[in-house]
């Protein structure tokens, strides 16, 4: 597992070391050491990294201070306080109890932070393209007035609702849902807005120019960041026809996506953990071949689709946190995604 410095760096700290050759290969996060050896996991495609001539720009006062408080709280929660001073070869020590006043929950309340839910409710009426994705179903099988508790069985596709596309979605030899590194599920959140353009043109794409325009205003996309396209499309989710815009004559759908060139730029020129959209696919709806998916997933990154409420998150300065079920062998999974401001 990566050093504490790298985990803290995912929350905005400047890393003194990097984990590039370790956790960006799509390998499983190791469990606690045991006496029994485990079979090695085949590595994913190596991540490429761009050397930068200058440091990433700093964000202004309050954001930096709050981010530092958040890092300290998470460090305490993970038992990492003071661990950065230890050599990498030191034996792991039991974590010390965290002062309740320094807990993550206390910091969030004290700083009046907002936690923005980026997740749609998963339900039977969530819009899906039925040819590829089965509509979610829920059936109650236990009733409190009969057995003392309520319970239901769900049937849904991995790729219904707000969900993650993992590298194995494009190549079964790469990381599955149970093999996504935990440190990649907490990342600086970059939000690139194209909603005004999407309102005029329903098949517009996030482009390299959009990314460069973002960098002109906010600085270079941070290492380890997650990039999200805000097209405003999530507001249509209550109307399946408006959300998917299936054109039967052309046998395509019409909604925004990420261009292949932008995907290549993000994985080749920047060191991201993944990118996502507030539409039902990473690819624009009119693209038949999932080229944007392949550009991202085959390099060991992950994608998030059907994100919500990105317009409530600042373009820079927030932290993405993703709750991912550990589905063994999964090619994707529903998630609970949130942004901590």
Fold and architecture overview:
This protein is of the alpha/beta class and 341 residues long. The chain has 2 domains: 110 residues, no CATH class; 197 residues, Putative cyclase (Glucose Oxidase, domain 1, 3-Layer(bba) Sandwich). Helix content is 21%, strand content 18%. It is built from 9 helices and 15 strands. Strands 1-15-13-5-7-11-12-4-14 form a 9-stranded mixed β-sheet. Helix 9 links the parallel strand 11 and strand 12. Helix 2 packs antiparallel against helix 3 and helix 8 runs parallel beside helix 9. The N terminus is likely disordered.
What's the structural blueprint in terms of helices and strands?
Blueprint: H1 4-9, H2 61-77, H3 104-110, E1 115-117, E2 137-142, H4 144-147, E3 151-155, E4 163-165, E5 186-193, H5 195-200, E6 205-206, H6 208-218, E7 226-230, H7 240-244, E8 246-247, E9 252-253, E10 257-258, H8 260-268, E11 274-277, H9 291-297, E12 302-305, E13 318-323, E14 332-334, E15 336-340
Parallel strand pairs: 5-7, 6-10, 7-11, 11-12
Antiparallel strand pairs: 1-15, 2-3, 4-12, 4-14, 5-13, 8-9, 13-15
């Amino acid at each position: 597992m990566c050093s504490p410095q790298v985990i803290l760096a995912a929350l905005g700290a400047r890393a003194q070391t990097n984990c590039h050759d370790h956790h960006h290969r799509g390998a499983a996060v190791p469990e606690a050491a045991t006496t029994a050896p485990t079979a090695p996991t085949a590595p994913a495609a190596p991540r490429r990294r761009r050397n930068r001539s200058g440091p990433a720009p700093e964000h202004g006062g309050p954001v930096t201070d709050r981010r530092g408080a958040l890092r300290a709280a998470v460090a305490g929660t993970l038992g990492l306080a003071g661990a950065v001073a230890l050599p990498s070869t030191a034996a792991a020590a039991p974590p010390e109890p965290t002062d309740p006043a320094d807990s993550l929950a206390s910091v969030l309340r004290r700083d009046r932070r907002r936690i923005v839910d980026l997740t749609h409710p998963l339900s039977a009426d969530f819009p899906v393209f039925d040819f590829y994705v089965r509509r979610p179903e829920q059936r109650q099988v236990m009733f409190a007035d009969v057995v003392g508790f309520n319970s239901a069985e769900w049937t849904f596709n991995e790729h219904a609702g707000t969900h993650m596309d993992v590298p194995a979605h494009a190549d079964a030899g790469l990381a599955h849902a149970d093999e996504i590194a935990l440190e990649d599920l907490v990342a600086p959140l970059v939000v690139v807005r194209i909603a005004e353009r999407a309102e005029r043109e329903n098949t517009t794409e996030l482009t390299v120019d959009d990314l460069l325009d973002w960098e002109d205003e906010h600085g270079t996309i941070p290492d380890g960041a997650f990039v999200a396209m805000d097209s405003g499309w999530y507001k249509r989710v209550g109307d399946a026809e408006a959300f998917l815009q299936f054109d039967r004559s052309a046998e395509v759908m019409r909604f925004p996506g990420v261009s292949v060139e932008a995907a290549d730029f993000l994985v080749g020129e920047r060191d991201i953990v993944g990118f996502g959209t507030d539409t039902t696919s990473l690819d624009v709806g009119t693209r038949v071949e999932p080229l944007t998916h392949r550009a991202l997933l085959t390099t060991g990154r992950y994608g998030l689709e059907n994100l919500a409420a990105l317009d409530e998150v600042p373009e820079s300065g927030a932290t993405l946190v993703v709750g991912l079920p550990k589905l063994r062998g999964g090619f994707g999974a529903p998630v609970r995604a949130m942004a901590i401001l």
